[in-house]
Design a protein that fits this description.
This protein has 426 residues and is an all-alpha fold. It contains 19 helices and no strands. The protein has one domain. The chain is globular and about 70 Å long.
C-alpha cells in the first residue's frame, strides 16, 4: 500500500467511524463502530497487532479507574442519593425558580467533579427531567444545564472526566497537583457558564414554581443506613485519592475498595443485588479500546510527529500558547468528538515534551469546548438522547447557536485564568 493510499484509507475508516458514531444506525451502541474501525485498521494493516496492544496497555490505568468509577457511581445511585439531591435543590429554592436553576447547576457541578461527567449525564439528567416535569417548569433550560455542567464542570479532578484520567496518567500528574492548578480555571469556567445560561434562558425560566407536589427528601431514600454509608465512603475515597501518591498506590485502588465496601453494605441492607454488575455501562470499554486503536492508525500517518515538532518550536507556557492549545482541542472536539481529539492531543503533547500549562490548556479545550455540536462529547450525546427519550427534544440549531458564542467565551476566559495560575505560582 503506497503512502498516499494508506493516508486515504486511514482517513476514510476514521471518518466512517465518526459518522456512524453520530448517526447510530439501528440504534447500535457507539462501541460497535469504534471496534469495527479498529478491526478494519488491523485487517488493512494500518495498525499492527503489537501497536494495538501497546495502545491499549498505555491506557490500562485509565480503564481500571473508569471501571471503578462506574461501579461506585452505580452503587451510590442505589442509595437514592441523586433523587434526594434533586429534591433538596427544589426544597432549598422555596418556590423561587431562579434559585432552583442555580441549585441544580451547583449540584451538577459537584456530582461531575467527584463522580465524573458520565454520572451527571446518565444519572442526574433523568432525575432532573422528572423533577422539572413534576414542578411544571420548562425542561429545555435544564437539559442544556445538564449538558453544559457535565462538560464544563469536569476540569477540577482527574476523576471528573475520562480525558483527565488519560492526561494525568500520561503526564504523571498527581491528584493534588492537578487540582491545585485547575481549581481557579474550574471556578472561572463554572461562573462564566452559569452566567451565560442564566442570560440565555432569561425568558424561559419562570419566576416561581409550586412546591406542593414535592415529596419529602427522606421518602426517596430506600435505606437510611446504606445512604449514610454512601456519604461516608464517598468522603473517605476522595481523601484516599489525594493520599494515594504518598502511599505508593494507584488512586483506582481506593475507588475499587469503596465499591467493594458499598456492595457488601448494600447487599446486607437489601439495597443491592449481585446482578447490579450487569447494570454497569460495559459498552464504554470496547468504545474506548476501539478508539485507542483507531487513533493509533491516525498517529501512524505521521500527523503526531509533525504537530509535535511544530509545538516544540512555540513559546512554552505563554498565554498565547495556552489559548492556542485550548482553542485547537476545542475545535477538534466539535469536529471529531472530544475523546479522539484528546487522544491525538495527548500524543502530540507527549512528543513535544509540552509544558504542563499547555497540557492542561488542551484539557480545557477538550472538556469545556465540545458544546457547539451535539456530537462534541459522549456526555452531550447521552444527555440529549435521554431528554429525547423523555419527550423533551432540544433542537440541534438551538445548541449550535448557543455554543457558537458561549464556548469561545468560556474557553478563552478559562484558559486565561489557567495562565494566571502559572504566572502567580510557577
Amino acid at each position: 500500500m503506497t503512502g498516499t493510499t494508506r493516508m486515504v484509507v486511514t482517513l476514510a475508516v476514521f471518518a466512517a467511524m465518526l459518522v456512524l458514531m453520530m448517526l447510530r444506525p439501528r440504534r447500535w451502541s457507539e462501541a460497535w463502530w469504534t471496534m469495527l474501525s479498529a478491526i478494519a485498521m488491523l485487517v488493512l494493516g494500518l495498525v499492527t497487532p503489537h501497536e494495538a496492544l501497546a495502545a491499549v496497555l498505555s491506557g490500562k490505568n485509565t480503564l481500571l479507574f473508569l471501571l471503578s468509577l462506574l461501579a461506585l457511581s452505580l452503587l451510590i445511585g442505589k442509595s437514592g442519593f441523586f433523587d434526594w439531591a434533586a429534591i433538596r435543590c427544589a426544597r432549598i429554592a422555596k418556590g423561587d425558580a431562579h434559585s432552583l436553576y442555580r441549585n441544580a447547576f451547583v449540584a451538577g457541578a459537584i456530582i461531575t467533579a467527584i463522580l465524573s461527567l458520565d454520572t451527571t449525564a446518565v444519572m442526574l439528567t433523568p432525575v432532573m427531567l422528572a423533577l422539572v416535569k413534576r414542578l411544571k417548569v420548562p425542561a429545555a433550560p435544564y437539559v442544556l444545564l445538564c449538558a453544559f455542567v457535565a462538560n464544563v464542570g469536569s476540569l477540577l479532578l482527574p476523576i471528573s472526566n475520562l480525558t483527565n484520567l488519560l492526561f494525568a496518567d500520561a503526564f504523571h500528574q498527581t491528584f493534588a497537583a492537578f487540582a491545585a492548578r485547575m481549581i481557579l480555571p474550574q471556578i472561572v469556567a463554572l461562573v462564566t457558564t452559569y452566567a451565560i445560561l442564566r442570560w440565555h434562558f432569561r425568558r424561559d425560566l419562570p419566576s416561581t414554581f409550586s412546591t406542593e407536589s414535592l415529596p419529602d427528601p427522606a421518602s426517596v431514600v430506600p435505606n437510611r443506613p446504606y445512604f449514610l454509608a454512601c456519604i461516608i465512603v464517598l468522603v473517605a475515597v476522595l481523601v484516599g485519592y489525594f493520599l494515594a501518591p504518598l502511599l505508593g498506590l494507584e488512586p483506582y485502588v481506593f475507588a475499587f475498595a469503596a465499591s467493594a465496601v458499598l456492595a457488601i453494605a448494600g447487599m446486607a441492607n437489601g439495597c443491592v443485588q449481585i446482578r447490579f454488575v450487569r447494570e454497569l455501562a460495559w459498552d464504554l470499554f470496547p468504545f474506548v479500546i476501539g478508539l485507542f486503536i483507531a487513533v493509533q492508525g491516525l498517529e501512524n500517518l505521521g500527523i503526531v510527529g509533525i504537530s509535535s515538532r511544530g509545538l516544540a518550536e512555540m513559546s512554552p507556557g505563554s498565554p498565547q500558547m495556552l489559548l492556542a492549545a485550548a482553542g485547537a482541542t476545542a475545535l477538534a472536539s466539535n469536529i471529531v468528538n472530544n475523546l479522539p481529539a484528546a487522544l491525538i492531543a495527548r500524543s502530540v503533547l507527549l512528543g513535544a515534551h509540552a509544558h504542563t500549562g499547555t497540557v492542561l490548556a488542551a484539557l480545557i479545550g477538550s472538556n469545556a469546548g465540545p458544546m457547539i455540536t451535539p456530537f462534541g462529547s459522549l456526555a452531550t450525546m447521552l444527555v440529549l438522547a435521554l431528554a429525547r427519550r423523555d419527550g423533551e427534544e432540544v433542537r440541534t440549531g438551538r445548541l449550535v447557536v448557543l455554543g457558537l458564542w458561549a464556548v469561545p467565551t468560556i474557553v478563552v476566559l478559562t484558559a486565561l485564568s489557567l495562565s494566571l495560575t502559572f504566572a502567580l505560582v510557577r
